[in-house]
Specification:
Number of strands: 6
Oligomer: single chain
Strand content: 5-15%
Number of helices: 21
Distance between the termini: 26 Å
CATH architecture of the largest domain: 3-Layer(aba) Sandwich
CATH class of the largest domain: Alpha Beta
Radius of gyration: 23 Å
CATH superfamily of the largest domain: P-loop containing nucleotide triphosphate hydrolases
Order of helices and strands: HHHHHHHHEHHEHEHHEHHEEHHHHHH
Bound molecules: adenosine-5'-diphosphate
Mean pLDDT: 80
Length: 479
């Protein structure tokens, strides 16, 4: 691998010869190898402009995405490669990593084993172990079919652990009776009842307030809104770095409202079989409509919404058009009481058509947490554990650039260590501040810095419409 001076020289050479494809490709590969993921992504993109059909570049771009946890974008980048039979086995492994990131263990396993059967040298022990581990329930996955629902649990028995399927007490008397879930043929997503509410989302006061006004008030006070000719419904695009809490927030919004929650991962929709994705998408909207009020959450929407012009496959284009049609609703009232929340780590890939009025027209930035928010997240994550006196502020101070998901990693790691010690000691030993501080040392924060670098590029160079103004103060700060 090149040292930093060598890399700098390569960057300089590429800057001087922007059309030299092998040079750019080499630079991109070196950046990827050294972990400069945002920069590698930008280089691969630039190379893709020069050679739009180059499989190596597409795979490199996808790897940069996977390593930034942008699994949806990775799958979108891999889609043209996976569509041709005999794609390189390495590409299959990459797809498996992205699918696993999306929580789709079944398809990840299929891709992985198919790739390794063609070329055993692409095997990856770590990935194989994760694929064969007993499935941990992950939000956004499609659980196996639930057995018939017992009367006390009207939402079926396939609740992920930590989820309560008891109907929540509606906050201020919702306009609709709490529905029993109505299944829809062809919809792979499940109707959930979220027991989270905004009290379970630490920090993010501005974001919660904005969602309250945009989503919750119109549903909670429909008469008032009707008086001004406004209906409940509509869409919000949550965007921000991976792990900052977009999914958590969407789930909490559903709980706050006493609405059903339908969580649709990209894998649920981008079905491998042409035709069934359209049916699945239609059925998913139908599922939300029959279970209104409902928060219909689309994760990694960038994969579906990647600029349509980038898409070579008519199939994907068709799917995007259908998504837009479903958002618009067949008639005026079709989506009343259906709140579409979409999340993306890469809002710049989301077609402007998605942001037209009545669609996902309200972008909301979910920022990385500041120290106070980090302390609040840590407090929340530790609340059910045996605790010594804790100084969460001290941990917050040493976890610069950590997002909610990273902090969860810190707490999980500290708990694991504590559990081992407790087993040896034969008694529970409470978790303490030094435990969290030690765990924080061993957890690497995910890609906030890289994300901000990418965001800065877009904000500075493609912000003609002012769409990313909200990001300006963030990208100007030092990361
Ligand atoms: P994203 O959807 O933005 O990638 P997630 O919502 O999946 O991120 O966040 C990962 C995890 O981090 C959540 O399941 C939750 O445990 C934790 N988390 C993130 N943000 C918060 C927050 N503000 N308060 C409490 N927990 C949070």
């Amino acid at each position: 691998m090149l040292d930093d001076a060598g890399l700098q020289a390569l960057r300089e050479a590429a800057r001087l010869s922007p059309d030299n494809l092998p040079l750019r490709q080499h630079l991109a590969g070196q950046l990827l190898a050294k972990g400069y993921l945002g920069e590698a992504e930008a280089e691969y993109r630039a190379a893709l402009v020069l050679a739009p059909k180059d499989a190596g570049i597409m795979a490199g771009l996808a790897e940069a995405f996977v390593r930034q946890s942008a699994y949806g974008a990775a799958l979108a980048a891999l889609e043209p490669l996976l569509a041709s039979p005999g794609y390189p086995p390495k590409v299959g492994v990459l797809a498996a990593r992205a699918l696993l990131g999306e929580g789709d263990t079944a398809r990840a396993g299929y891709r992985y084993h198919e790739a390794v059967s063609r070329d055993p040298s692409v095997g990856d022990a770590d990935l194989a172990a994760r694929l064969s581990a007993p499935p941990t329930p992950t939000y956004g996955t499609t659980p196996p079919p639930a057995p018939p629902a017992p009367p006390a649990s009207p939402y079926g028995a396939s609740a992920p652990s930590g989820q309560s399927y008891a109907a929540p007490v509606p906050p201020t008397g919702p306009a609709y009776a709490t529905p029993a879930p109505t299944p829809v043929d062809g919809a792979t997503a499940e109707v959930e009842r979220s027991k989270l509410n905004f009290a379970d989302v630490a920090g993010m006061e501005a974001v919660k307030e904005s969602l309250r006004v945009k989503l919750l008030l119109p549903i909670q006070q429909p008469d008032l809104f009707a008086a001004y000719g406004k209906r409940a419904g509509g869409g919000v695009l949550l965007y921000g770095p991976p792990g900052a809490g977009k999914t958590h927030l969407a789930r909490a919004a559903a709980g706050e409202l006493g609405a059903s929650f339908v969580n649709v991962g990209l894998a649920d929709i981008l079905d491998m079989y042409i035709g069934s994705s359209e049916r699945n998408l239609r059925a998913t909207f139908e599922l939300a409509r029959r279970n209104r009020p409902c928060v219909l959450f689309f994760d990694e929407v960038d994969a579906l919404a990647a600029r349509r012009s980038d898409m070579r496959q008519a199939h994907t284009r068709q799917l995007v058009n259908q998504f837009l049609a479903e958002l618009d609703g067949v008639d005026q009232n079709a989506n009343e009481g259906v709140l579409v929340l979409a999340a993306t780590n890469a809002p710049w890939y989301v077609d402007v058509a998605f942001r037209r009025p009545g669609r996902l027209d309200q972008p909301v930035f979910v920022p990385p947490p500041d120290p106070a928010a980090r302390a609040a997240i840590l407090r929340l994550l530790c609340r059910d554990k045996p605790l010594a006196e804790m100084d969460f502020d001290a941990v917050a101070r040493v976890t610069d650039h950590f997002v909610g998901a990273d902090l969860k990693g810190v707490v999980d790691r500290a708990v694991e260590v504590k559990l081992q010690q407790s087993i040896s000691a034969g008694r529970p030993i409470p978790l303490s501040t030094p435990d969290l501080l030690a765990a924080a040392q061993s957890v690497r924060p995910t890609a906030v810095r890289e994300w901000m670098a990418t965001a800065r590029n877009y904000v500075m160079h493609s912000n003609d419409s002012g769409a990313w103004d909200e990001l300006l103060p963030w990208v100007k700060a030092k990361w």
